[in-house]
Write a structure and sequence with these properties.
Layout lengths: L13 H11 L6 H14 L3 E5 L2 H11 L7 E5 L5 H8 L3 E5 L10 H10 L3 E7 L8 H8 L5 E6 L6 E2 L2 E2 L6 E5 L12 E5 L2 H11 L7 H6 L20 H11 L2 H18 L6 E2 L15 E5 L7 H10 L15 H7 L7 H7 L2 E4 L7 H15 L3
Parallel strand pairs: 2-3, 2-4, 4-5, 5-8
Antiparallel strand pairs: 1-9, 6-7, 8-9, 10-11, 11-12
Helix pairs in contact: 1-9, 2-9, 3-4, 3-7, 5-6
């Protein structure tokens, strides 16, 4: 059997909605995008939702909107994709890297508090909700708000995810979501910036499309001549097309169905792989229905039957897809050399990184596929 690491399900209204866009003759940002924004904002409990062409774009717009600039410092967990840190450099600021909690992969309020005490000039924190599980937002805000530190949430993995009864998307100053092809819902490429702050939303909308003060859809569809516009800032080209938004609308209709299917796979893994010698499973703080399960990982300890390289070779031989989430940023050449980062300063991330492997998990994963993966993983890692 061949089992991919992920498989996209576009078997509902995706084709219908894309055909509607094609028939309209207007393919770029327009009615479908605005509908997607409205429905997504409602889904996460955010007043303003702004569709963009990637989560990276949303993160960049978020930092720019909250006023981060050259010489500023921003806390970033070392266990994350590079986009979380690279956008800090986009605006000329410097990332201050912090360790994660072993087992969950999450940044914590105590680690943020320690970092803020060591770096009192920090103006913002990038909170990464890892693998679909939310960080403890009430505790994090209790640390950040009294200090005037802005909170930008990287929720690329976290839709639909809840924390303390509220959706991720309704907590920090700005929350940024990803709709990349392997995410919990997809537009192929795409993202969303969500905020309750009207002034931040206004700035992000202007900067999303070249710093122009009026969007092109309104200019060209108004009942009276309204072609004139002004450029009020040197903005970016970050808008989402209606073709992508059409796919997003269809995916959004099935978000909770997809989440339930992911949770079922994760539940099987947690049960079936428990007790394997030298194998650590994810630590789950949330109740099951609050976790989006973007991916499921295991960590092979030194005492495991196989090391990571040998285990991956075994998966490949059995045609089982896999990934690694993530090589910490303190190991990446740019950040390591520019900021003189040392592995010993990030012991939890090091412990995770040395043995982490992510297993297949996607909506529509069949019982046969899941049984096969579990059987082969246990065969590779069980004592002989």
């Amino acid at each position: 059997m061949k089992v991919p690491f992920c498989r996209v399900d576009c078997s509902s209204n995706e084709v219908k909605y894309v055909q509607e866009v094609l028939a309209s003759g207007w393919l770029t940002t327009a009615g479908k995008t605005f509908e997607f924004e409205k429905r997504f904002g409602t889904a996460v409990g955010g007043k303003h939702a702004i569709a963009v062409n990637s989560c990276t774009a949303a993160l960049h717009l978020a930092l720019e909107a909250v006023g981060i600039g050259p010489g500023d410092e921003v806390l970033v967990p070392t266990l994350t994709f590079t986009a979380t840190a690279e956008v800090v450099r986009y605006v000329g600021a410097d990332p201050i890297f912090v360790d994660m909690e072993y087992g969950s992969g999450l940044i914590t309020a105590p680690s943020i508090q320690d970092a803020l005490e060591s770096h009192p000039k920090v103006k913002a924190v990038m909170v990464v909700h890892f693998a679909g599980q939310a960080a403890n937002m009430p505790a994090i805000l209790d640390v950040c708000r009294p200090r005037g530190v802005r909170v930008v949430e990287d929720a690329a993995h976290a839709f639909p995810t809840r924390c303390a009864g509220r959706m991720i998307g309704s907590w920090g100053d700005i929350t940024c979501f990803s709709f990349y092809a392997n995410k919990t819902i997809t537009t192929g490429e795409g993202g969303m910036l969500v905020t309750d702050d009207e002034s931040l939303a206004k700035r992000a909308r202007v900067m999303r499309l070249h710093g122009i003060d009026r969007d092109i859809w309104n200019r060209f569809t108004a009942s009276r001549p309204s072609w004139e516009y002004d450029v009020v800032a040197p903005g970016f080209k970050y808008n989402l097309s209606d073709l992508a938004a059409a796919v997003g609308l269809a995916q959004l209709e099935r978000a909770y169905e997809f989440r339930d299917q992911r949770q079922a796979v994760a539940k099987r893994y947690l049960s079936a792989l428990a007790g394997l010698p030298g194998v650590d499973l994810p630590m789950v703080h949330s109740v099951p229905e609050d976790h989006a399960w973007h991916f499921f990982w295991i960590v092979l300890q030194p005492e495991a039957r196989l090391n990571r390289d040998a285990f991956i070779e075994g998966l490949m031989a059995r045609e089982i897809g896999f990934s690694v989430h993530y090589k910490p940023l303190h190991h990446m050449t740019y950040y390591k050399e520019r900021y003189h980062l040392r592995p010993e300063d990030f012991p939890n991330a090091e412990r995770h990184w040395r043995g982490c492997v992510s297993l297949p998990l996607y909506p529509g994963m069949t019982e046969a596929e899941l049984d096969y993966v579990i059987h082969e993983v246990r065969s590779l890692l069980s004592p002989s």
